User: What shape does this take?
Amino acid sequence: MTDFSIYFELGWQHICNWAGYDHILFVTVLCGTYLLADWRKVLVLVTAFTIGHSITLALSVLNVIHINTSLIEFLIPVTIVFTSLVNVFNKKRTITTMRLNYTLALFFGLIHGMGFSNYLKSLLGSSSNITAQLFAFNLGLEFGQVLIVISALLISYLLIKFAKTPQREWTMFLSSAIFGIAFIMCIERFLLIKFK
Assistant: This one.
């Protein structure tokens, strides 16, 4: 197995791993107000998130920026809580709310990228030429992210189309459930923040 395929696999397995379900929750709630027919809008949304986390993932792994790991681990569920609240309170998708979603996805991607970097740094160890590994890992993350998005959109499609669940009720249920999980994570991780 080549280095590329190893790091690609590590990337998608990392984001799809239930042990690190915070990223799964974020991607799910991020596309929670969209339908399968909105896949182009979701693609733009996910691309904004990708740009954000690619920037900080690269900068952190290359030691351009240094982060307080416990603070980032706290901020990740904060992004989930905030995104859940946006879904709950935005009753209609207008151009303004869509732009807000894209901006938040980009900004929150910056935070998630720093979270991904801690895992990747531990894998790379003292390796000096990390560009190829960084690229493969990032592509793996994107592949995993696409799997999560497709799953979330298919579940919403089945519930809305066949179970006749109103879209707004599904959005409220999904966002509220994810809010509850993420809020508990916020409290737990806030208590673990180490200020230096």
Remarks:
- The chain is about 80% helix and 0% strand.
- Residues 131-161 form the longest helix (31 residues).
- The helical segments are 3-16, 21-30, 39-61, 69-89, 95-124, 131-161, 167-190.
